[in-house]
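Quick one, tokens below. Sequence please?
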């Protein structure tokens, strides 16, 4: 329930603070006094689009706060808990708007994006504007009213979930089908390339090994000759060789060390060199023993290298990368095969999820039809009360074709009405009389509002086009609604205003080039004066006061 609304520097309001109570609150005032300004400011606090022109001239920013009691609103408390926003039985929504157009929103003092203000505001207040009958002529809005009245939120959630699964799988299948069409032209080429590379069967890191082997085999004769020459130089030469010379040098140094032990380290280094030279000679000798000329193997290696080079040029890759390229195209071909299999699976899954969606949508459709019957009777009775004695109302719920499937089901909801005997049921949008349309709209809004879980309802001049006895009925309907929920009614009809549990009067004062709007709660005497003014204009007589007293509901 809305407990308090505080408005600062908004439009022509300098400062306004309203303390509100349960029941029906009537709000009246002279034309142009700004009766709807408080509602506009409240809508801003609930996340509506901000306009910098709304800031009062001469002020730096507008500031609107709305305080709500939420201890008996489990949905609101659950939402605040999910968003990790503190709640202590009350909730404060605040919105500031600077002269430059910068807007900020707060929930319980915590800065939040406007999307969160809107989401929470939708759980707290439902505003029915004077132009609601225009939205009421749209099929989507009609369906939304029926669903709100039916309260089958879980059914809608199930339908939405099944629809999303079906569409997601359908999109996946469509994407695979498109890819398959694109890949089909590549498949034969990939299959040929993979077969060709499979036949080559080039192992990972094989190409560098082949290059090294080819280099060795191609230079076999030179390796034989040069190895023998090296062995002769090192140790096998008959006349002289390095090993012989080193031994002679070691002998001389050993004798010198006997004369001067400081040459000991030199002797050790030469001895170590002699050992290394002997080991090197041995290794080179063993290498030469194993070294053979193999023209046949050389031919095989050259042929394989040639094939590798040929396929590398063919596929525009470096020979060293041919193995990796082979694995990549094998993977692509495997993906195509997997996609073929996945496509077959998707055909079954799409049909299955579509059937599940249609089953859930059918349950939702049946619920809509059931509640539509109940709503038909209530609204028809309400039309009779609103001086449309021959009025008939009917909601049709028809299954749309596949193009009309949506997360909200398969139904097309349409409000039909007949206002005169013998007149066929026609879409609400084709009702000719503006007064009749206003009354029908009002009946629908009042009745559906009784089932909506929003704790505060605001009716902003929804009684336009209604007068006389019909206005009295409207007032009684709104008061009945106020017995179960908080209702704020902006009206210009005394028959409606007199039904309020409390009454606020809106006035506008102009002085010294400054205009301000004020709202004050009326006591019983002031209420009689205001109802009399609404009845007879500025001239209040004993008769208008007597009539006003009859309209005032205790």
């Amino acid at each position: 329930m809305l407990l308090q609304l505080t408005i600062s520097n908004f439009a022509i309001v300098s400062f306004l603070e309203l303390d509100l109570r349960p029941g029906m609150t009537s709000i009246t005032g002279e034309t142009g006094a700004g009766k709807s300004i408080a509602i506009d400011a409240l809508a801003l606090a609930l996340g509506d689009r901000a306009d910098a022109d709304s800031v009062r001239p001469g002020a730096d920013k507008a500031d609107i706060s709305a305080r709500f009691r939420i201890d008996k609103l489990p949905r609101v408390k659950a939402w605040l808990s999910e968003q990790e926003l503190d709640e202590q039985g009350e909730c404060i929504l605040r919105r500031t708007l600077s002269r430059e157009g910068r807007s900020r929103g707060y929930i319980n003092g915590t800065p939040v994006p406007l999307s969160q203000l809107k989401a929470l505001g939708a759980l707290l207040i439902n505003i029915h504007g004077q132009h609601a009958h225009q939205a009421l002529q749209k099929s989507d809005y009609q369906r939304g009213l029926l669903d709100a009245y039916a309260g089958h939120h879980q059914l809608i959630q199930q339908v939405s979930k099944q629809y999303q699964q079906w569409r997601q799988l359908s999109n996946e299948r469509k994407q695979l089908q498109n890819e398959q069409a694109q890949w089909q032209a590549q498949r034969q080429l990939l299959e040929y390339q993979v077969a060709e590379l499979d036949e080559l069967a080039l192992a990972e890191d094989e190409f560098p090994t082949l290059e090294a082997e080819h280099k060795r085999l191609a230079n076999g004769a030179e390796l034989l000759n040069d190895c023998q020459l090296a062995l002769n130089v090192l140790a096998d030469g008959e006349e002289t060789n390095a090993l012989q010379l080193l031994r002679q040098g070691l002998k001389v140094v050993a004798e010198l060390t006997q004369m001067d032990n400081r040459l000991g380290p030199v002797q050790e280094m030469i001895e170590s060199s002699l050992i290394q030279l002997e080991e090197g000679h041995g290794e080179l000798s063993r290498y030469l023993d194993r070294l053979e000329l193999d023209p046949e193997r050389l031919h095989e290696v050259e042929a394989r290298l040639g094939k590798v080079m040929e396929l590398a040029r063919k596929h525009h890759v470096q020979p060293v990368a041919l193995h990796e390229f082979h694995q990549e195209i094998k993977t692509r071909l495997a993906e195509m095969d997997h996609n073929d299999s996945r496509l077959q699976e998707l055909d079954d899954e799409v049909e299955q999820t579509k059937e599940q969606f249609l089953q859930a949508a059918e349950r939702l459709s049946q619920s809509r039809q059931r509640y539509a019957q109940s709503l038909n009777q209530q609204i028809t009775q309400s039309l009779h009360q609103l001086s449309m004695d021959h009025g008939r109302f009917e909601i049709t719920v028809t299954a749309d074709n596949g193009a009309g499937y949506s997360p909200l089901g398969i139904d097309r909801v349409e409000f039909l009405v007949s206002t005169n005997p013998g007149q066929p049921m026609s879409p609400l949008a084709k009702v000719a009389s503006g007064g009749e349309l206003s009354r029908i709209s009002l009946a629908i809004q009042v009745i559906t509002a009784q089932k909506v879980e929003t704790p505060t309802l605001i009716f902003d001049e929804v009684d336009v086009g209604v007068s006389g006895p019909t206005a009295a009925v409207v007032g009684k309907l709104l008061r009945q609604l106020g017995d179960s929920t908080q209702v704020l009614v902006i009206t210009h009809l005394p028959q409606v205003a007199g039904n309020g549990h409390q009454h606020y009067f809106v006035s506008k004062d102009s002085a010294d080039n400054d205009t301000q709007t004020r709202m004050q709660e009326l006591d019983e005497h002031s209420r009689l004066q205001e109802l009399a003014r609404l009845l007879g204009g500025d001239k209040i007589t004993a008769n208008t006061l007597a009539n006003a007293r009859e309209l005032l509901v205790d």
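The chain has a mean pLDDT of 87. The longest strand covers residues 502-511.
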